[in-house]
Amino acid sequence: GDSVTQMEGPVTLSEEAFLTINCTYTATGYPSLFWYVQYPGEGLQLLLKATKADDKGSNKGFEATYRKETTSFHLEKGSVQVSDSAVYFCALSDAGGGADGLTFGKGTHLIIQP
Amino acid sequence: GAGVSQSPSNKVTEKGKDVELRCDPISGHTALYWYRQSLGQGLEFLIYFQGNSAPDKSGLPSDRFSAERTGGSVSTLTIQRTQQEDSAVYLCASSLALLAGGQGPDTQYFGPGTRLTVL
Questions:
Q1: B25 CB near a chain A CB, below 8 Å?
Q2: Cβ-contact B110, A104 below 8 angstroms
Q3: Residue among B42, B93, B102 minimizing CB distance to A106
Q4: A103: β partners
Q5: Does A17 touch chain B (CB under 8 A)?
Q6: A106 vs B contacts (CB less than 8 Å)
Q7: Burial readout B45-69 (b: 16 or more C-beta within 10 A, e: otherwise)
Q8: What is the rounded CA–CA span in Å between residue B13 and residue B11?
Q9: At a CB cut-off of 8 Å and minimum separation 6, what does B53 contact?
Q10: For A48-101, what is each residue's pLDDT tens digit?
């Protein structure tokens, strides 16, 4: 079946540091890939997505590129802020053009210190 | 516009009781999804509806779990004879399901969740 593997946390960084959160996947089809974020006390929000190989999703200074050859979708940000502290989830959808549930990674707890 | 809403936000129940969790999707979204978020299991997909039908119920953890959707809108997730291992946050999401031009599945928008505690 499908699966998503992401680095375990917590990840602690200082403000303005460079961030990488690794995500790799296995899928039977040609999935769409997502990063969701859960800020403290809030619900899951879509951060960015990519639907085909070499696509780059970006939002709020975060980027991730769909790498089919390495089955990866690593999340990066050049300069993190305290407000980026949250739990980040990598996810995939193997539904083709239809609807189906997302397969999530375990989540990475990111802590940014001033 | 209004997002996905869920009720109750918190539910505490005794072991063996039945509970009903409600989800109100974004207006016009044809697809609706239920997930469970727990410390031990992370985020698990339970079931989805396309309109009022659920093509695949195999993600439900046991036969104590059931879900229905009527009128292509509100959905309820029912857990019968609750057990302590059912304690978790139950999340609902909705989407348009299909994007034009074969762009793949639409974004799923999540509700705030119902925190279920079984004593």
A1: no
A2: no
A3: B42
A4: A92
A5: no
A6: 42
A7: bbbbbbeeebeeeebbeeeebebeb
A8: 6
A9: none
A10: 999 889 999 999 999 999 999 999 999 999 999 999 999 999 999 886 555 578
Contact criterion met (CB < 8 Å) for A98 and B102: no
- Tell me if A19 sits within 8 A of A7, measured CB to CB: no
CA distance B45 to B60: 8
Query: Residue A68: helix, strand or coil by DSSP?
Result: coil
Q: Find where tokens 């089809």 sit.
A: A29
Burial of A92 (0-12, 13-18, 19+ CB in 10 A): buried
CB–CB of A101 and B50 under 8 A?
no
| Angle ∠(A85,A88,A91) on CA atoms, nearest 5 | 170
Facing residue for A43 by CB, picked from B30, B42, B112: B112
E strand or H helix at A32: strand A32-38
Contacts of B33 in chain A (CB under 8 A): 99, 101-102
Task: Summarize the confidence of residues B57-76 as an average pLDDT.
Answer: 92
Q: How confident is the model at residue B103 (pLDDT cuts 50, 70, 90)?
A: low
Is the omega angle on the peptide bond into residue B112 within 30 degrees of 0, that is, cis?
no
CA distance B22 to B90: 10
Q: Which amino acid is at A65?
A: T
Structure tokens at A98: 């239809």
